[in-house]
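Lab manual, section 2.4: Encoding a predicted structure.

Procedure: take the sequence of the chain (154 residues), apply the prediction step described in section 2.3, and record the output as structure tokens. A sample record is shown.
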Amino acid sequence: MALRGVILLILISLPALFASADEKLSAYQVLQKYNFPSGILPQGVVGYELNRDTGEFSAYLSGTCNFAIDSYELSYKSTIQGVISPGRITKLKGVSVKVLFFWVNIVEVIHDGDKMEFSVGIASANFPTDNFFESPQCGCGFNCNHLNAFVSSI
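Recorded output:
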């Protein structure tokens, strides 16, 4: 009788276990919950970890990711880490931007209304939030159409 009760309890619990696994948000959805546009991460995030108590997070790409947007060259390491809170990412590691001839680390990101502020420590730059609604693609950023046309013609 006890075995039958345990089996029944397991069968009742299975849907709840599968539902909680299906409800795990993507890294892009988590960004949105913290008031960030999903486009601050490139396409291809394969996983993430988040400590909801401290805000410490890690996002994982399948490899390094480089692309150019306008006059900026960006580089993402395969692991991006930081501390996230509503509208602010601090202690950011794994994201850098080329300024003139030097690569500098982006260490903080602030979303304030219709602008995004990216800080490299001693300097920062502001950009319109709507520039980050779409995630760039590794290798080509937002200018990927010419690559697809080239590949399809081979």
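Check your result against the sample. The CA atoms of residues 45 and 58 lie 11 Å apart.
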